[in-house]
Amino acid sequence: MVRVSPASDGPSRPDGAPYPVVRDEDEWQAALTPLEYHVLREAGTEAPFVGEYTDTKAEGVYRCRACQAELFRSDAKFDSHCGWPSFYAPLAQDSVVYVEDHSLGRVRTEVRCASCGGHLGHVFEGEGYGTPTDLRYCINSISMTLEPHDRQES
Ligand SMILES: [Zn+2]
User: Fold this and answer.
1) How many angstroms separate the alpha carbon of residue 143 from the centre of ligand 1?
2) pLDDT at 2 over 60
3) What is the CATH number of the domain that holds 90?
4) Catalytic site includes residue 138
5) How far is the CA of 126 from the centre of ligand 1 (A)?
6) Would 142 be classed as within a structural domain?
7) How close is the Cα of 21 to the center of ligand 1, in Å?
8) Which helix (H) or strand (E) segment is 30 a member of?
9) Which label site among 2, 36, 80, 112 has the fewest CB atoms less than 10 Å from its CB?
10) Is 55 inside any structural domain?
């Protein structure tokens, strides 16, 4: 089975537009740790309940660990108890792009960074979490870096 991943899909978004941030895979490999590379470029998944932001409540903006684009805000993060950081919406509609993922024998929707194409996680719908969107963006901690708000910022 062909594994679809950012590394294999090349420099174009699902809509055909180029990603603003494009690097060769060997450049990504040099810029990221092996585990970061595995998740962000090879669409890997970190183990549940071990990610650094799984239960983080700190306020701030979560940026892409590969390209630093802003992806999610802490105010859309919620307790899903699924083992990964969960958000009910991205920071902006154009912060992320979506790719159909057939890798587990069922269709899931993969979420990628709209700037560099890095794999972030998946989005699930209709699980009844009672969030404003009924969506759960299930995101790998290792795909993101939390930038905490300064004290004076709202
Ligand atoms: Zn990115």
Assistant:
1) 8
2) no
3) 2.170.150.20
4) yes
5) 27
6) yes
7) 7
8) helix 25-31
9) 2
10) yes
For the whole model, what pTM was predicted?
0.94
**Cα of 114 from ligand 1 centre, angstroms:** 7
The answer to whether 119 touches 110, Cβ cutoff 8 Å, is yes
Range of the structural domain that residue 133 is part of: 20-148
pLDDT at 63: 98
Catalytic residue among 64, 67, 113, 138: 138
How far is residue 21's CA from residue 118's CA, in Å, rounded to a whole number?
Answer: 10
Q: Give 35-94 pLDDT, tens digit per residue.
A: 999 999 999 999 999 999 999 999 999 999 999 999 999 999 999 999 999 999 999 999
Q: Report how many domains make up the chain.
A: 1
Q: Is residue 114 domain-resident? A: yes
Q: Which residues surround ligand 1, an ion (CB under 5 A)?
A: 64, 66-67, 69, 113, 115-116, 118
Strand partners, 147: 61
153 domain residue, yes or no? no
Q: Ligand 1 centre and the CA of 124: distance in Å?
A: 21
Please name the amino acid found at residue 50: V
